[in-house]
Each structure stands twice: as C-alpha cells, then as structure tokens.
Amino acid sequence: MSLLITPPRTTETAGGPWPATARFGADGHAEVGGVDLMEVAGRFGTPAYVMDEADVRLRCRAYRAALPRAEVAYAAKAFWCRAMAAWVRSEGLALDVCSASAASSSTTSPRSTASPRSSPPECGRRCWCG
Questions:
Q1: Which of 16, 52, 91, 106 could make a disulfide contact with 129, Cβ separation 3.0–4.6 Å?
Q2: H or E segment and range at residue 114
Q3: Residues 35 and 79 in one domain
Q4: Would you say 35 and 53 are in contact if contact means Cβ atoms under 8 Å apart?
Q5: What domain range includes position 26?
Q6: How far from the centroid of its chain's Cα atoms is residue 129's Cα?
Q7: Is 117 among the domain residues?
C-alpha cells in the first residue's frame, strides 16, 4: 500500500487539507498560489514550508465570520514568522504565543493577557498585535 497521494491527471482544485489555491496539473505537479511545488523542492530542498498568504487570510476571515463575538487567536507554535504576524494582525486575530521572544518578534508591540492554562509566567500568552 502506498502512502503517496496520486493526484488526478486533470487540472483541478485539490480540496481536503490543501490550501484553497492548490491545483494539480495534468503533468502531476501540485501548485500552491500559482507556484509549482516541484520548483520549490528543486530550489530549496525538502522538506520545505510553503505558506500561501491568500489562503491564510481566507482562513482567518472564515474564523472571524464564524465566531464574530469571540476572540480568535492564531497559535504561533503552529508556524511563526514576521510575515505570519503581519497577516494575522491585519486580519484582526489575536496571537497565542508560548514565549516572550515569539511575542516580541511580531511587527508591532503586542498587548498580552495571561492565559488561564499558563504555568510558567511567559507561556500561554495571548497577544493582540495592533
């Protein structure tokens, strides 16, 4: 039994856990945001993290729309970089961080509130960057 996903041989959207902009071409290559993932692998090697800004923003908006009265927080431990901080901030989400360094790496000074589940003083902070 193979664990590899065999994409369809026609150009179509991927669905499932793939980003909204993922497409499988007739050549068998996957693209995310119009970028061929074989080219990414050739240039940067594997494994490589490929984040699609359009998809991240769509998902942020979907959560905000589904939970209009809730504070929606992105878990920085899932994947963190300054670009992600900027995308999350501009979409109105809070940040759930596990270290002071993650909080300080955001593009603006975050406001923090301690999470009830935090044990060390700097763990489990939720920050609002804006």
A1: 106
A2: strand 110-114
A3: no
A4: no
A5: 12-44
A6: 16
A7: yes
Question: What is the C-alpha to C-alpha distance for residues 26 and 48, in angstroms, rounded to an integer?
Answer: 23
Confidence of residue 80 (pLDDT cuts 50, 70, 90): confident
Residues 80 and 39 in one domain: no
The β-bridge partners of 24 are 12, 30
Q: Which pairing describes strands 94-97 and 73-75: parallel, antiparallel, or unpaired?
A: parallel
CA–CA dist 25, 23 (Å, integer): 6
Q: Please report, rounded to a whole number, the percentage of residues in the chain having pLDDT higher than 70.
A: 64
Omega before 47 cis (within 30°)? yes
Residue 63: strand pairing partners? none
Residue 7 lies in a domain: no
Which secondary-structure segment (H or E) carries 56?
helix 53-66
Q: What is the pLDDT of residues 19-75, one digit of tens each?
A: 988 999 888 899 999 999 999 999 999 999 899 999 999 999 999 999 999 999 999
- pTM for this predicted structure: 0.67
